[in-house]
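dumping these here so i dont lose them again. two proteins, back to back, each one seq then structure tokens. dont judge the mess
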Amino acid sequence: MRIDLHAHSTASDGTDTPAELVRNAAAAGLDVVALTDHDTVAGYREAIDALPGGLTLVTGAELSCRLDGIGLHMLAYLFDPEEPELSRERELVRDDRTPRAQAMVGKLRDLGVDITWERVDRIAGAGSVGRPHIAAALVELGVVPTVSDAFTPHWLADGGRAYAGKHELDPFDAIRLVKAAGGVTVFAHPAAVKRGRCVPEDAIAALAAAGLDGIEVDHMDHDAATRARLRGLAAEVGLLTTGSSDYHGSRKTCLLGEYTTDPEIYGEITRRATGAFPVPGAGGRLRG
């Protein structure tokens, strides 16, 4: 089985619609793909309705968190999307995205960049606006060559010249909320140093003690030495290890299935989840 547990659609900051995402996942030879848009479940129904035979969809979200001033992302899988407390927190994060993006546009203009909110809003479309949309605008304007090049201290990285904060979950609260909604939590790209500061390993151990299920090890932002170190840490503190593409369509260079998760790890994730079932075949119905 080929299993990719981290992919984004136009419901947040990807360039594939949810329907295109599942069709492209099947075309890439995947058996399982997870839809993990930022702080939203808005793409679920379209993805399920378009799901090709032979492909299983794992419903999820990538939750925006912050610990001791350091931003981090928590992948949440197979939770009940209608659980009220987790839904309220996702809504708070989403509601703060637009004013935060507008503040970053203002900072960029103060830095002499000829960027407009209208351009960013056009790029975001119906998606949940975020830094990748601003980064895409910077690429269009020729300020940076790629989206990744915008995520530096010079521009949009945490603490960067044009960075602005938003409402984010405490990761310990995120773990509690996802578990209460029957879901499973995996810390996304925990050592992606190119994106900015990363939480220390003792914090990951503390999150594990609080119920974190796993960490994303095989990821484009982790080199071989980093992956080996993370596998050792996971073994020490009892965490599952996953691999994922973090696919964003044409917005990033990674491809669906570029990194994958071991089928036994996937099986354990599905065994731990009680909020929703993976959806097989051509359409299905969420368990809530």
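---- next one ----
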Amino acid sequence: MSITVLVLALSAACCLGFGFVLQQNAAQRAPLADFLSPRLLLDLAKVPSWLGGIGLMAVGMALGAAALGQGEISLVEPLLATNLLFALALSRRRTRQPLGRQGWLGLALLAGGVAAFLVAAEPRGGHAVADPVRHWLIIGLMVGTALLLTGYARRARLGSAPVLLAAAAGLLYGVQDALTRESGQRFAAGGWPELLTGWQPYAVLVLGVTGLILVQSAFETAPLRKSLPALTAAQPLAGILCGVGFLGDRLHTDAAALAGQAAGLTAVVGGILLLGMHPALPQGSVAPARVALQTG
């Protein structure tokens, strides 16, 4: 593993984790009438702390793009999943809640799971799949699942909606990461003309804005502990599927390696769930009668 890729990916995870905490603190005070509406972003843009969170997220995405430009998506995505550790660290500092047995176990599972997956899989580059049918089939599966989850969330509202929306956003962000890597490859091959004549950078923009609306709607309707774990778990799974499916990433596929990869990913998801339920993450509250955004 390249040290540069490791540093870039972990720095990206740090910025993303800190940014998510700031965003949720602002979004939980947004009007519920803005649920799943672009108006939500316009209202939140009036809140300085939310803008700070978006700034950190933008830096994190830029660092993540740099990591994807130098490493396989199947390598970078598990490292980006550690953003939950940084979110927990910031929240713990704010709440002064000790980690306790649950927190340490979740941390060990997440960190150990990422390490186990990378050791077992040994992600390495290969040739991208030229078959457009396979390309669009995988992207369509991810985007279609995200749309289905969003449809259920619209009906569920304050019930399971935050988890569904966060999972949908995670799937879109995983696809966005894959297309970000493709965009970088196009730019390296032919500069700006090659990049701007492809559909990938425009899809990255659309997926980013759509994912942002979904995430902020999830943050708006529930505490961070209900939404961030689903987001953190879905994104690397979608990214790895895209990497192996059409970007040409190669993983070891012997029985022992596959067992190690499955165990690693299971540990990652388990650690994410444990950390997501940790009391150090803001529990917040949602007031159904809320009609105006508090900017103070």
